[in-house]
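Batch 3, record 17
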Amino acid sequence: MSTPRILDGKALAAAVLDECRAETDALTNQGITPGLAVVLVGEDPASKVYVANKVRTCGELGFHSRKIELKAKTTQEELLQVVRELNADSAIHGILVQSPPPKHIDEEAIIRAIDPRKDVDGFHPENVAKLVLEDPSGFVPCTPAGCMKLLESAGISTNGAEAVIIGRSMIVGKPMALLLVSKKSNATVTIAHSRSKDLPAICRRADILVAAVGRPEMVKADWVKPGAVVIDVGINRVEDASKKSGYRLTGDVAYQEVAPLCSAITPVPGGVGPMTIAMLMKNTLQAARQLSSM
Amino acid sequence: MSTPRILDGKALAAAVLDECRAETDALTNQGITPGLAVVLVGEDPASKVYVANKVRTCGELGFHSRKIELKAKTTQEELLQVVRELNADSAIHGILVQSPPPKHIDEEAIIRAIDPRKDVDGFHPENVAKLVLEDPSGFVPCTPAGCMKLLESAGISTNGAEAVIIGRSMIVGKPMALLLVSKKSNATVTIAHSRSKDLPAICRRADILVAAVGRPEMVKADWVKPGAVVIDVGINRVEDASKKSGYRLTGDVAYQEVAPLCSAITPVPGGVGPMTIAMLMKNTLQAARQLSSM
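Prediction for the assembled complex:
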């Protein structure tokens, strides 16, 4: 038992955003103001908070931003039309439709309609394929990109390391696996999930353990090899009568018992979470650069 | 030590082709003759053999086929033009440009130019993304599709199994990992490669071991857990003075010493190899069905 290194996502995100600000200034001096459009359909309170944060961060960096709030009953065709207009708008370099949209919207069709060169979430098939093909001109989904940045900036080598990812989603698990197994990272990567047999034993192999399942405090001390690096992508609300709000936020990792075993670990909140928005801004800058050099 | 089950790819490929023949007859009765175009640039002798086999198999199934042989000095633009014409040709449902093309050809750009609905090799970004997204309307690359078919037809369950894939290529390793980790297959999947530390120990975890590295007989007996299923994707030429040709074909697995340990194993030749062409024909039928129902 020793004191693990806390991978401070809040501080790192602030540093990434400082870099973004400097680059924004340089681009603006060339006459290019990076522009991000965020589309929100409906009234989901959590989505409203996320969208507000993104728009505020744009303001802090000197981006042009556009917030488009649509009624919950907006039709698929109306939403597609909004996306098409943003595709055609030269002041907009990044387009993001806040997930999840209302149930009657076919989210995949909406994502496909976004110009892949403006798909700063990295969910368009074109960008998914670029991730598999290791083509750096594509956009990497923000959360796994943030995890990679946390590892990289802490000087944690992935080369030849055993990485285990719990979760196989399109948003985190699969892209994280592809990033870690790439020729740039060279990790040996295991993708585990709810159907895996003896998940604790699989996780105990990991030099780098990434938890992205959305189950509060699932990863216990006996799931973790002493000295491992633990990246906790989960953000779960659990009831807590001692809190004014009635709940507290917790990750997929039982932090109190796991942290003493680790060489490094991300806290929740303040770990992966803040990195996601920072990487979104980085992606938007990449889009602005790439679109304006065409 | 016991006698392993030999996963006979030659017999299974013949059965798959029988199914294809029946489906071809049914389609032809509806006025649709499946059509495959195979483009060969240059004079590579191995490529010539592959192309001839594909065209011959088309004939055996009652497909329409077109073999387009281009000179080695064909330009990128000339080749693109051929692809465009095939895209526009309603008698052609599948288009395949034999790999590798001459060095001056940008293969990725050629693949991108193929209509994804006719990309029966499954290498177009659109189909790569569909594989990640688990969208069955895409085309799965033929070799990993053949490996999955071998497992399936032998009744080998992947559900919760530990699968280890050696190799992270776009043609085999990555698509195989995506297939095995999908919600349909539910394996726990490890992707290992030349940079992995202690490859033998990683491979010994596998219930299903897939070798796709292209190194003759690399996988030895002490890499294999007793009772494992071994799929050998390698086809390597090694010098052999006792053969008239001066060489023999061998897989990535040291078959003689590994086979007695396995519950099931694919031979080389006669394992994965024959499945590849059978899955190409299946993909072409899928293309013919999908294009004619549009």
